[in-house]
């Protein structure tokens, strides 16, 4: 009990004293997971649009595949990337193993099924009448598509946030292809795992508190935004009828 | 002889095939400037498809279409024409945003100056009696109000043609009559041409100047209400197994009304004069449902039992067996307050003037 209490006390000291190590690891985690989320959204949302709105053969199979991949074990994906990025692997020539770039790519792949599945569901849930409605009000095909996209925006945003949370909180990929190199590739989760093993409980607790606070904080902000019906997203794009 | 300019739309040999099924079969129809035309037909007859073609959101498989004398040949023409015609769907669809943003959508697409927009939205909402609803969320208002938002969203565009697909289906009587009034007002004041799909013969008789009878994707007859209903053609009777439509024998009474015997001991009194074989309609909205017999000036009172209960958006439709099956429409609230169940004994009351007589 005493160890936990002391750990907690030291953890708060670390957080509130603005400890540079804690600060640096947190920023690196945010940077890596943030970039991985942006990349997965860039390639995942177009796939979701295709899966959610177009009717084609094999659609059902693809959707099931992405859904199944949501639960892929991070260590398995970490091992896969380790094998292809290591010197003797097919992409070894890139020399990115144990670099932040490797973690970014690995996490982007890890979270793509979440972005794709959740966004495709959100797009599918938009009433099919919306396309005809936009068209009869004068919209072109593109404008009608954007009307549907806008209706699904809440769900797509939620998909993006869920995928960020998964990247931010995962351990396997970051550990296996990042290597937890101090000051270079160590992120919140890898540091927590390794420092705990070393017995540095207070740092682990401090980083865990930060990890949880950020995850909860982001979810809270998204909830508030959704409740206000994305008023903040009302950017001007009159040519799209937004 | 009417000049070609008096036609707003001219459809020639329009056929539409979906996955091998013919939805519209060689339709030839001309729509006059400023008229209300009803497409009357049973469900599945192709009314909605025809409206979508008129709205330029569905392309005919074959045939030619002229709008104000100009041929609509390709997608580019259709996109341009889409701004001249707008459709209000049967299943009300609203964008997941405020009433204001819903109404403003088409204006923004058209690039209407910002200075004009707010006034136009206000006017449109006034016309559908939803003043002050601008900031309300469109998904949080009642079904009837949503349908009125949909109509305001169409009206605000001031298109030459407005297409209404079963505009009052699934609405409670209050909202339905507001919408019927709006349709008449817009047509009178703005001279907007309207095409309205309906399976409700009563509505088809009341609102439009002309009626086109549509069955199995074909237009069987086009004419005025008197033409269509007066002759009670075979086409009309073939699908006119609508609610509260009965065939019977009419004979005059001493009170200068007409008594129509529709069989099974049911005799309906009507104000219109008739004798011999007739068909009668009573709109479900004109029938008062009560659990007790009450004194009134209404000439028709029947006792029966609830045989069927069906729930739509905001109204409950009940089938009451009084010897013949009558359909009655009441609000959900009344339904809850009256504690009606299958088999409950009820009384139906309606005036003799609510009975429409059509000669066979």
Overview of the molecule:
The complex is a heterodimer of chains A (242) and B (360). In chain A, helix 3 packs across helix 5 (100-125), helix 5 (100-125) runs antiparallel to helix 8 (153-169) and helix 5 packs antiparallel against helix 9 (172-178). By secondary structure, chain A is mainly alpha-helical. Chain A is globular. Chain A has helices spanning 2-16, 20-53, 59-69, 74-85, 100-125, 129-136, 141-151, 153-169, 172-178, 188-198, 201-227. Chain A has one domain (31-54, 73-229): MetI-like fold (Orthogonal Bundle). Chain A is built from eleven helices and no strands. By secondary structure, chain B is α+β, with helices and mostly antiparallel strands. Chain B has two domains: 4-239, P-loop containing nucleotide triphosphate hydrolases (Rossmann fold); 245-359, RNA polymerase II/Efflux pump adaptor protein, barrel-sandwich hybrid domain (OB fold (Dihydrolipoamide Acetyltransferase, E2P), Beta Barrel). Helix content of chain B is 27%, strand content 36%. Chain B contains ten helices and 20 strands. In chain B, a hairpin with a 3-residue loop joins strand 17 and strand 18. In chain B, helix 3 (99-109) crosses helix 4. Chains A and B meet through helix 6 and helix 7 of A and strand 6 and helix 3 of B.
Features:
heterodimer; A: 242 residues; mainly alpha; MetI-like fold; 11 helices; disordered C terminus; B: 360 residues; alpha+beta; Rossmann fold; OB fold (Dihydrolipoamide Acetyltransferase, E2P); five-stranded antiparallel β-sheet; 36% strand
């Amino acid at each position: 009990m005493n160890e936990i209490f002391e750990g907690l006390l030291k953890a708060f000291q670390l957080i509130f004293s603005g400890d540079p190590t804690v600060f640096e690891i947190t920023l690196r985690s945010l940077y890596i997971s943030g970039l991985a989320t942006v990349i997965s959204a860039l390639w995942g949302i177009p796939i979701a649009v295709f899966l959610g709105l177009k009717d084609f053969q094999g659609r059902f199979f693809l959707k099931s595949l992405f859904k199944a991949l949501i639960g892929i074990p991070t260590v398995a994906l970490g091992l896969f990337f380790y094998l292809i990025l290591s010197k003797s692997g097919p992409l070894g020539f890139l020399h990115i193993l144990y670099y932040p770039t490797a973690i970014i790519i690995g996490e982007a792949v890890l979270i793509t099924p979440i972005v794709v599945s959740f966004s495709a569901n959100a797009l599918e849930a938009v009433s099919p009448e919306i396309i005809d409605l936009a068209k009869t009000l004068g919209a072109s095909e593109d404008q009608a598509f954007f009307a549907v996209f806008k209706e699904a925006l809440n769900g797509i945003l939620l998909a993006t946030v869920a995928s960020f949370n998964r990247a931010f909180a995962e351990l396997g990929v970051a550990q296996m292809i990042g290597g937890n190199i101090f000051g270079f590739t160590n992120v919140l989760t890898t540091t927590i795992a390794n420092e705990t093993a070393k017995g540095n409980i207070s740092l682990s607790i401090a980083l865990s508190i930060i990890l949880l606070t950020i995850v909860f904080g982001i979810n809270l902000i998204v909830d508030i935004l959704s409740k206000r019906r994305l008023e903040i997203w009302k950017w001007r794009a009159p040519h799209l009828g937004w | 002889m009417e000049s070609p300019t008096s036609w707003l739309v001219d459809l020639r040999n329009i056929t539409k095939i979906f996955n091998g099924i013919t939805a519209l079969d060689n339709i030839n129809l001309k729509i006059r400037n400023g008229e209300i035309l009803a497409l009357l037909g049973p469900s599945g007859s192709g009314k909605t498809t025809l409206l979508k073609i008129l709205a330029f959101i569905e392309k005919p498989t074959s045939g030619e279409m002229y709008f104000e004398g100009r041929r609509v040949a390709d997608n580019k023409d259709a996109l341009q024409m889409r701004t001249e015609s707008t459709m209000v769907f049967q299943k009300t669809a609203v964008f997941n945003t405020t009433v204001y943003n819903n109404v403003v959508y088409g204006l923004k697409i058209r690039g209407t100056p910002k200075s004009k927009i707010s006034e136009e939205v206000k006017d449109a909402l006034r016309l559908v009696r939803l003043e002050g609803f601008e900031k309300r969320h469109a998904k949080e208002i009642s079904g009837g109000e949503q349908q009125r938002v949909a109509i305001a969203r169409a009206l605000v565009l001031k298109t030459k043609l407005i297409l209404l697909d079963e505009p009052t289906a699934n609405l409670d009587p209050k909202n339905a009559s507001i919408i019927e009034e709006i349709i008449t007002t817009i047509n009178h004041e703005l001279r907007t041409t309207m095409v309205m799909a309906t399976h409700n013969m009563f509505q088809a008789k009341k609102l439009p100047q002309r009626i086109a009878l549509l069955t199995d994707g074909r237009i069987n007859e086009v004419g005025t209400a008197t033409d269509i209903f007066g002759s009670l053609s075979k086409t009309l009777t073939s699908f006119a197994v609508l609610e509260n439509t009965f065939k019977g024998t009419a004979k005059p009474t001493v009170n200068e009304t007409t008594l129509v015997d529709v069989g099974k001991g049911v005799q309906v009194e009507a104000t219109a004069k008739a004798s011999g074989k007739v068909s009668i309609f009573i709109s479900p909205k004109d029938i008062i449902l009560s659990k007790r017999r009450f004194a009134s000036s209404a000439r028709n009172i029947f006792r029966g039992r609830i045989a069927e209960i069906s729930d739509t958006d905001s109204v409950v439709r009940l089938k009451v067996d009084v010897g013949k099956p009558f359909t009655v429409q009441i609000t959900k609230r009344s339904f809850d307050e009256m504690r009606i169940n299958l088999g409950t004994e009820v009384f139906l009351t309606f005036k003799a003037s609510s009975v429409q007589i059509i000669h066979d």
